[in-house]
């Protein structure tokens, strides 16, 4: 199992950097993962998306459609891509500690 | 009796239907058993399966290699990582060929080592797993350079099928197939949420200048074109749907999107399980008939295009409708003058085009993308190797769905990255979602400043409405 070391902490991740055990996630982990995605500081807007993804995943065991993310957070699609430059799947879901989605991502 | 949902959806923009819950996908859910190691029982099972996988193409490809080495320079793995001789196509294919020879080559009965025959041991099987899942994207560039006509793509698919059948398949890849099997699309997008997303994108499209009357009709019976999508579009990247719909509306194309089997992907082509691949094709085939469309229209997607255009008619013994793609349709619309483009939108930027292997080499769509790009931009530069000779980006064959081989995948993308760098392009165009992500990753990894976008995203902003 590959590991990812960020600032002295080690995480078990898959080779695309997604957290292997979603239960290990907390806000500190999110901050560390954000750095690997090139996000130096998580703003309130980032947190709104991250918490939304996290809660949705815990309830439904799957990542929400981008439509739901936009509707429920009130952010425009372009805003989400600005907040997470590597996209909702690879960027936002990874920071929120969700597993790698199935399909072409 | 008219199904109220069908009636509602046929009119285009309507509230999302929430009442009817039709089970899409297979009636019974399944989870493919996945094994982390080859056991003696699995090897014995593979021995039983092998003969069933030997069709003419596979048997000739296994028997035909003369080890001339011409494939060596054709492969993006060897071109990018020349120091690793185990990545040579002939070496990789030999992981399977040695076993085949041990079973079927008469000379191997007398002198096994003389013909390179080996019994199937755990060691050989492990090697086969590593090389044929993790070091081949079935891009077939070596096949084009093979004097014996060895079809590596088909050979690898057969080997993968045998391994998958005994459970030795990369977990994430198989989960993607199971998601498709269980839900009718590979990201488990529910039908009502899909329709809501399309309605939302229609609203977004209508808010663009000059697009107030544009529509994205869902389940419109008798539409000329049945547009299919990659699930990552509705799930995460709907702007490509918006761009595609904008182009089709601007040209006055009569199209529709099904609320049922709109997923054009077919990952079973990568796992080598033909009954799954055929089943997914069958669902879509029936859906095109349900909506009585003249054309099945593949969105921009490499393996999806190949699965629909070239494999579906084989799997199903022919189809009563025509099959085309957005690449071909957009080129046709430009040539017939049904859309006109303003090149100044893209002025000051240089563009190059990456050919997806399944669209170009295995699909024959070579000039259409160039017709589109030349109509939309002034500064277009080809990569050194292009069209059917293009190097794979490294993301094909399901590679993006196998995180255990990600590091090698990025290393194998070096040759493509260097060819992109040499063009000095600001934008890399392509027509495939797998290529999109791989190109974004290698451009970033090898320090190239270039954006990646598909052809609809190129054409949509340049449309003169």
Automatic annotation (TrEMBL), chain A:
- Catalytic center at which residues? 104 (cysteine persulfide intermediate)
Gene Ontology biological process: tRNA wobble position uridine thiolation
InterPro entries documented for this protein: DsrC-like_C, DsrC-like_dom_sf, DsrC-like_N, DsrC/TusE
- Gene3D superfamilies the UniProt entry points to: 3.30.1420.10, DsrC-like protein, C-terminal domain (1.10.10.370)
The protein's name in its UniProt record: TusE/DsrC/DsvC family sulfur relay protein
Arranged from A to Z, the UniProt key words for this protein are: Cytoplasm
Superkingdom of the source? Bacteria
Keyword hit for ATP-binding: no
**Family note:** Belongs to the DsrC/TusE family.
Query: What are the recorded GO MF terms, alphabetically?
Result: sulfur carrier activity
Q: GO terms for CC?
A: cytoplasm
* Lineage of the organism: Bacteria, Pseudomonadati, Thermodesulfobacteriota, Desulfomonilia, Desulfomonilales
The subcellular location is: Cytoplasm
């Amino acid at each position: 199992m590959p590991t990812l070391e960020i600032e002295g902490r080690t995480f078990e991740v898959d080779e695309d950097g997604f957290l292997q055990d979603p239960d290990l996630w907390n806000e500190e982990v999110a901050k560390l993962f954000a750095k690997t995605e090139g996000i130096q500081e998580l703003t309130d807007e980032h947190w709104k998306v991250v918490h939304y993804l996290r809660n949705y995943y815990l309830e439904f065991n799957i990542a929400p459609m981008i439509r739901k993310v936009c509707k429920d957070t009130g952010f425009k699609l372009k805003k989400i891509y600005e907040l997470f430059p590597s996209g909702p799947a690879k960027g936002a879901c990874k920071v929120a500690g969700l597993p790698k989605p199935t399909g072409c991502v | 009796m008219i199904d109220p949902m069908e009636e509602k959806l046929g009119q285009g923009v309507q509230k999302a239907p929430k009442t009817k819950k039709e089970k899409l996908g297979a009636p019974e859910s399944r989870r493919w058993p996945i094994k982390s190691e080859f056991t003696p029982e699995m090897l014995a099972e593979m021995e039983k399966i092998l003969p069933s996988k030997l069709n003419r193409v596979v048997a000739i490809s296994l028997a035909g290699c003369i080890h001339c080495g011409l494939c060596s320079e054709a492969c993006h793995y060897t071109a990018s990582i020349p120091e690793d001789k185990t990545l040579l196509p002939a070496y990789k294919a030999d992981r399977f060929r040695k076993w085949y020879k041990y079973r079927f080559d008469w000379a191997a009965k007398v002198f096994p080592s003389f013909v390179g025959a080996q019994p199937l041991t755990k060691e050989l099987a492990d090697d086969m797993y590593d090389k044929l899942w993790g070091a081949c994207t079935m891009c077939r560039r070596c096949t084009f350079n093979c004097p014996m006509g060895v079809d590596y793509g088909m050979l690898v698919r057969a080997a993968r099928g045998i391994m998958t059948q005994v459970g030795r398949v990369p977990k994430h890849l198989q989960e993607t197939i199971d998601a498709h099997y269980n839900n009718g699309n590979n990201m488990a997008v529910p039908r009502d949420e899909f329709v809501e997303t399309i309605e939302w994108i229609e609203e977004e499209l209508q808010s663009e200048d000059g697009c107030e009357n544009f529509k994205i009709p869902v389940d419109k019976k008798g539409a000329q074109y049945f547009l299919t999508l990659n699930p990552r579009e509705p799930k995460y990247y709907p702007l490509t749907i918006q761009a595609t719909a904008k182009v089709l509306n601007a040209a006055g194309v009569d199209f529709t999107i099904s609320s049922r089997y709109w997923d054009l992907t077919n990952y079973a082509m990568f796992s080598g399980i033909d009954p799954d691949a055929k089943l997914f094709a069958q669902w879509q085939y029936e859906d095109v008939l349900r909506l009585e469309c003249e054309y099945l229209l593949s969105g921009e997607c490499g393996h999806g295009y190949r699965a629909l255009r070239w494999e579906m008619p084989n799997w199903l013994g022919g189809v009563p409708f025509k099959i085309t793609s957005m690449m071909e349709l957009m080129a046709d619309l430009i040539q017939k003058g049904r859309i006109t483009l303003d090149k100044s939108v893209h002025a000051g930027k240089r563009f190059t085009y990456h050919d997806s292997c399944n669209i170009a080499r295995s699909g024959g769509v070579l000039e259409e993308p160039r017709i589109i790009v030349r109509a939309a931009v002034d500064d277009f530069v080809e990569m050194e190797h292009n069209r059917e000779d293009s190097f794979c980006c490294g993301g094909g064959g399901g590679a993006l769905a196998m995180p255990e081989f990600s590091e090698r995948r990025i290393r194998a993308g070096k040759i493509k990255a260097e060819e992109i760098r040499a063009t000095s392009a600001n934008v890399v165009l392509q027509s495939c979602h797998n290529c999109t992500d791989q190109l974004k990753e290698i451009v970033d990894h090898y320090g190239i400043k270039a954006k990646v976008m598909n052809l609809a995203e190129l054409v949509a902003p340049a449309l003169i409405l």
